[in-house]
Design a protein that fits this description.
Chain lengths: 173, 97
């Protein structure tokens, strides 16, 4: 029961702090689920990160995997509800304000001011996940090459993730 | 919204059951190791593409670097990072007449 409460409190609070989307809260998610509650190891967190990115649906469903590891099926479902409901409620409420406040200084400040924070949080996520997954030069090289493909081409990311998985399966990284 | 989320959640729960049942299998570990390297790249690309759109002024670049340092390098709690940098970013971006 204690774990279920922890799951709900952690993921609902992350939901409310997820400016710029789910990827912006990955460092905090890692810090708490690996470093504070010990629900997963560092390697398992990296693995569930890869699964959530490759699986259909929003990548924030990484919380389903973490919740499952912490407390079984109920934990997975609770983590999902905890991360979706608060953010969805806030978006629902804010939409009314947003539509009627096109010229509001607050709206303009939030849209412009939070964007650099979002980029910093997402790159922090990449750094934390890179530390967990890329342990040698071959993995760094694979990450670098994939990043260049993602930045400069419109290739379907799932194809690249699948190919990288194949490269891993063959033992090349 | 429930319908939109239910199927992916059921699928991911299935993947969770399969992963934690078989995660010690070497070939699965190696496959996920490769896929994780690409998933990190996907996150880097997301940061680069968003950054190209919004990091044009020095204060924006400083806010970006401060966020990366506090949350990523120093591992400060997200709430503390946002409590410090949120008001600063709003003050910077507040429209001036």
């Amino acid at each position: 029961m204690k774990t279920l409460v922890q799951i709900f409190l952690l993921f609902s609070s992350l939901s409310l702090l997820s400016i710029g989307g789910g990827n912006s809260v990955l460092p905090e998610m890692h810090r708490q689920s690996v470093g504070k509650y010990y629900w997963l190891t560092d390697n398992q967190f990296a693995d569930v990160f890869a699964i959530s990115q490759a699986a259909p649906g929003p990548s924030i469903l990484i919380v389903t995997l973490i919740g499952y590891k912490a407390a079984g099926i109920l934990g997975g479902v609770l983590a999902t509800v905890a991360v979706i409901l608060p953010a969805a409620t806030v978006v629902y409420l804010v939409t009314f304000f947003w539509q009627h406040a096109e010229r509001s200084p607050l709206r303009q400040a939030i849209e412009k001011g939070f964007a650099p924070l979002t980029v910093g949080l997402v790159l922090a996520s990449a750094y934390i996940m890179g530390k967990s997954t890329d342990h040698d030069w071959r993995a760094f090289l694979l990450t670098g090459l994939c990043a260049l493909i993602f930045i400069f081409t419109r290739t379907n990311p799932l194809i690249i993730v699948a190919l990288a998985g194949l490269i891993g399966f063959l033992g090349w990284v | 919204m429930f319908g939109l989320c239910a199927i992916p959640v059921i699928l991911v729960l299935g993947l969770a059951v399969a992963y934690f049942q078989f995660h010690h299998v070497p070939s699965l570990q190696k496959t996920l190791h490769g896929a994780a390297a690409a998933a990190v790249a996907l996150t880097i690309a997301m940061a680069v593409k968003t950054g190209q759109k919004c990091l044009h002024e020095l204060p924006a670049i400083l806010l970006f670097l401060a966020t990366l340092t506090m949350n990523g390098l120093l591992r400060w709690p997200l709430l503390l990072t946002l409590a410090i940098l949120g008001p600063l970013s709003l003050a910077w971006a507040w429209p001036r007449k």
